Amino acid sequence: MSEPTLFVAMPFSDEFWPVWETIDAAARTAGARALRVDLIPQVDNIHEAIFREIERSAAIVADLTGANANVAMEVQHARNHRRPVILITQDPNRMPFDLKLYRAIVYSNSPESRAILGQRLSDSIRAALAVAAPAPAAAPSRASPPARARAAAVPRQEPERREEQPSGFTYLRDETFECGGACHTVGIYRFEPFAQAMGNLLPEGGTDPACEFVLIPAGEFLMGSKELQNTQPVHKVSVPSFFMARMPVIRLVWDGCSHMRYYPREKITTSTGDRRPIEGVSWEEIGPFLKFTGLRLPTESEWEYACRAGTTTRYSFGEDAVVKTGFFARKNLLAEYAWYGENSRYGKDVACAVHPVGQKLPNAFGLCEMHGNVWELCEDTYAPNYNQHPTDGSAAIGVGCDRVTRGGSSWSEARALASAWRQSFAPPRHLTYGGFRVAARP
Q1: What is the pLDDT of residues 265-282, one digit of tens each?
Q2: Rounded to two decimals, what is the model's pTM?
Q3: Rounded to a whole number, what is the distance in angstroms from the first to the last CA of the chain?
Q4: Which end of the chain is more exposed for a tag (fewer CB within 10 A), N or C?
Q5: What does the pLDDT look like over 64-86, one tens digit per residue?
Q6: Domain residue spans in the chain?
Q7: Side-chain-facing half-sphere of 440: CA atoms under 13 Å
């Protein structure tokens, strides 16, 4: 049996040659054959040949250093064809906006850093090969792509419809995410009413993470924490498969859905899109939105299961918010995944702010900002402990009207962003720094 092919998308110049050697060695260690663009036989249409090789490859490694448009385009083509993508970069701040949602291995072009890069790449390539979809025997021809890289403009083969796909959802691709030692390949779906709500800001047939949902696989996990009084007893919960939005509902989507409710025949046209989460809304205001879209709030069990994404640590990325990287050096990992009180202030005496979505790394299910930015409402009524909490993933609806909020906000301290942290919210009030994320049953 021949070795699986690992397509390598990267800039090619003398300074990147040691990086290529590192990738090539990591691929051989993982049992794969690395293929770069200049190794493809010369043909009349090189773009068509590149796309064909990507479709035949088991996975792709992409170096986004320098924000190379061709590399970004090749990454998008791999995603459209459900190939696992491993991202690396020397400068994460210059990554294309839509790819900042995916975790990249950050390295510097030094021998020590490349040695670490090689080790991490070997592990990532093995994981990608384990979940890679079988490559097609042949691929249809592709026209030459446009010069700029844009998700909606890349030629795409229409994915086949899945049994789990309910009305309003369109299957897009499978995506592999790694975080906190967990790795999952999940289905990504576009929710059409959200896409319509974005109006002219979203090209026809295009997608945006703000209108995407993840099909969360069924599973079991230990819910709660021994560190917190109101999250005990720790208990096992079995959660059925469900859809969950990749991000909290943003103002652009909220306003667009409101427009469709009241003016269903008018086309939505907007020149600017507010990508901040909708916040400060009341329970009564959320109800009509859920009824119009046919969605629901996640149960508290679903929320924590989705937040943990297979991890058992305090946060979805690890046990500590800040880790030691040297004798005096510290790294704030929480700041890479969340907006909270430490990194949300505009100045020493200026209040914290709610930030646009999509600027922080996702967890192992591909969900963004499960920690911080805005508190997220759950369907459950609040109880001071888990003594009577259901173990089948359903909502705990008891006496009283207070509801559960999760995740912390841009105003919160680090401990309130823990995966198990919970607090109550009285529905008649407007929840300051509070929004919501939506879910659906398959």
Answers
A1: 666 655 456 899 998 888
A2: 0.65
A3: 38
A4: N
A5: 887 677 787 788 788 777 788 88
A6: 5-131, 159-442
A7: 22
